[in-house]
Amino acid sequence: MTSGKLGASALAALLVAHCAGMLDLVALPVWVGALVERFGFSPRSAGMLATLFLLGAVVASLLVAPRFHRLRPGVLSPVAFALSALAFALAATRSDLGSLAVLHLLAGLCTGTALSAVHGTMGRTARPHRVFALAGVAVGALGVVMLGVLPQIMIVAGGHALFVAFALAMAAAAAATALAFPKPETLLAAQSHSLSGVGRGVWLIILGISTMTLNQAMVFSFVEVIGKMRGYPTGQVLGVLIALGLVNFALAAPLAVVLEHRIRAETVVRLGPAVQAVFALVVTGSGVFPLWAPVAASFVAVQIFTHTFAFGLLARIEPTGRAVAATPAMLMSGAALGPILGGALAEAFGYQALGYVAVVIALISVVLFSLGCADGRGRPVAA
Fold first, then answer.
1. How far apart are CA 317 and CA 201, in angstroms?
2. Cα separations in angstroms, 294 against 224, 228, 236, 297
3. Predicted local distance difference test score (pLDDT) of residue 353
4. Which of 41, 76, 111, 205 is most buried, by CB atoms within 10 Å?
5. DSSP string, 206-231
6. What is the reported pLDDT for 11?
7. Contact in structure between 205 and 313 (CB atoms under 8 Å)
């Protein structure tokens, strides 16, 4: 009989894999900023490259998630991460838009495949909310390192160092999952139902997550660019990015662990998009650094905190494991459109337009979450 309880090494492997697969969550501003400043691409083209990576991850996740119960995630994950590492390593040797576009798409396909296997496995643990929250803590730690160190490395080594770092992260995830992926006997038994049989509420919550991540990516991709455009010193902007990682590491995800049984997930998912919209208005519209800095540093934390509760909610109300295996598709379908939409809006109307559009998208997300939580077929069982 399976328990869903993980050993320390298996848990560590899942956390490392989650960090590599969710690089975009913390690295988007450095990623897009490097493509604009160091490769000379326009905001639209830079956003398009990030979008291709995310789009590839979405397609892969949509293919993997419905078949999760028939796959061997312990084999699929390390192989896919290794291929993603290879794609980023090749990207480090190229500077033309065409080659980078193809390699971004390939890296996204491989990363999405691996991450779906990882998230589906997380959903079959005894406490998926806690595991996903700990993964958020790990992403926060990664953010501190990447946002603090990568810009400095690129000053010395050039923009291609970005792709070298990404390749190393994917290689680390390949090694971790190859050596210590959770054994089937340590996981809860997989269900055999199909996603077509889940309640309408589950689909509405999935759409709510996707629209919220659209806002996340649309605004967050240009945080570094916005800060520099407003005349803030480069050191201060980089300090905000480092603080962002610290907030994620020390506040957002740990708070989600502590509050797991103290606040209803339904409440969190309804309020999260509204808070995100307010923060987006400040990030894109404020010219006062003492106000802009703490809000920009906390922007990703809203997404991490809200999605942790949404992940636990889906794991409860949809027990097949496939809804959570589709987490990359939920996150990255919205995130895939964010950079290119943000770039197009910025070029046409200026960066402040991103905040106004974020309010509209947040309203849609709140409605989707509210309907999903209220729907009888998607109502979670009591914790």
1. 9
2. 14, 16, 12, 5
3. 93
4. 111
5. HHHHHHHHHHHHHHHTTHHHHHHHTT
6. 93
7. yes
Q: How is the chain split into domains, by residue range?
A: 8-378
Q: How many residues would you count in the chain?
A: 383
Which pLDDT score, from 0 to 100, does residue 380 have? 42
The number of beta carbons lying within 10 Å of the beta carbon of residue 200 is 13
Residue type for 107, please? Answer: A
Helix, strand, coil percentages, rounded to 5, for the chain: 85, 0, 15
Burial class (CB in 10 A: 0-12, 13-18, 19+), 376: exposed
Q: Which residues, including other chains, have CB under 8 Å from residue 258's CB and lie 6 or more apart?
A: none
Phi, psi (deg, nearest 5) at residue 320: -75, -20
Alpha-carbon distance of 332 to 87, in angstroms, equals 19
- Residues in Cβ contact with 327 at an 8 Å cutoff, skipping those fewer than 6 apart: 61, 115, 116, 119, 311
8-378: what CATH class? mainly alpha
Closest-CA residue to 304 (of 256, 339, 364): 256
Least confident stretch, 12-16, 105-109, 213-217, 274-278: 213-217
Nearest to 58 by CA among 88, 24, 91, 89: 24
CB 33 within 8 A of CB 311: no
How far is residue 144's CA from residue 108's CA, in Å, rounded to a whole number?
A: 23
Q: Is the C-alpha dihedral spanning 25, 27, 30, 31 positive or negative? A: negative
Dig out the tokens for 98 from the structure.
Answer: 């065409």
Q: What is residue 248's DSSP assignment?
A: I
Distance between CA atoms of 362 and 212, rounded to whole angstroms?
7
Higher-pLDDT residue of 20 and 339 is: 20
| Rg, Å, the chain Cα set | 19
For residue 295, give both structure tokens. 């809000």
Q: How far is CA 126 from CA 121, 290, 304, 319, 375, in A?
A: 11, 43, 21, 12, 25
Q: What is the mean pLDDT of residues 81-101?
A: 96
- CA–CA dist 157, 150 (Å, integer): 10
CA proximity to 209, closest of 256, 134, 263, 273 = 273
pTM for the whole thing? Answer: 0.79
Tokens of 25: 């969550």
Distance of CA 376 to the CA centre of its chain: 29
Contact in structure between 296 and 239 (CB atoms under 8 Å): no
Calculate mean pLDDT across residues 168-190. 86
